[in-house]
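Hey team,

Filing this mostly as a record. A colleague (T.K.) asked me to run one chain through the structure pipeline before their review meeting, and I want the input and output archived in the tracker in case anyone asks later how it was produced. No errors, nothing strange. Just documentation.

Input sequence:
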Amino acid sequence: MDIPFSLAGRTALIAGASSGLGAHFAELFGAAGANVVLGARRTDRTAEVAEKIVVAGGNALAVPLDVTDEASVVAAYDAAEAEFGVVDTIIANAGVSAAGRSTDVSLDRLQVLVGTNFTGVYLVAREGAKRLIANDSRTKENGRITIIGSITSRLTGEGDSAYAASKAGVTHLGRNLAREWVRQGVNVNTIHPGYIATEIQGDWYQTEGGQKQIAGFHRRRLQDMASLDAMMLYFSSDASQSVTGSDMVVDDGQSL
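Output structure:
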C-alpha cells in the first residue's frame, strides 16, 4: 500500500467503519501509522477489520457507535481516549441512502437518512472538536476533521434526492464548522467521492440500469476506492495544517 503522508502519532476515529469506504479508510490509516478507532453499529464487522489492522502491525480498537445517538457518540470517544488518548483525527463517514422517487420515499426512511447523514456528522464532528479544544488544539493546531460528501450534492436527477440534499447540507456544515473553529486549531474539510461500488448500492451496478450508468461516465468506469487515499491522508496529516474549509471533488471526472 502506497502511503504518501504519515499519520504516525495520530489517533483517528472513523465513523461508519464496518464496511465500504469506512473499513477501507481504517486499514489505510492503520498502515499510515495512526491509532485507529473503528466506530459502527455492526461491531462484529469492525472487530474483524480491527483484527486485520493489528495483525498487520498496527493499533486498532473497535467501538460501538450509533451516530444518531449522542450518548453513543460520547461513549465512543470515551473508549477511544481510554485506549489511545485524545482523538485528533475524525472521519465523519457514516451514511445511508433512500433511493427512489421522492414521492415514494417514506417518512421513516427520510428521518433515518437525515439522522445518519446530517445529524450524525454534526454529532461526531462536534464531540471531537469539544475534546480537541479542551486539550489545547488552539496551540497544537492538531485537529483534523474530514467529512465524506458526495458528487450527488452537485448534481440533479440522480434518483436519490434526499441523499444528495443531505450531502449538500454537510458540505455547508463543514465550511461553517471550519469557520467556527478556525482559531481553535481544528481543520474541517469535505471530500466528494464519485460513484464507487460499495455496500450502500447493493447490486445496482450489476443491473442493466447500473451498467448504463457506468457507460455514461466519461471514463466508462466506476471510481476505484483507493483513488481517495492520498487526499484522505493529506487532510488527516500535519501537511494540511493550512487547509480548512475546503470542498474537494475526487471523482475520476464523473461529474464533469
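Quick notes for T.K.: The CA atoms of residues 196 and 223 lie 5 Å apart. The mean pLDDT is 94.
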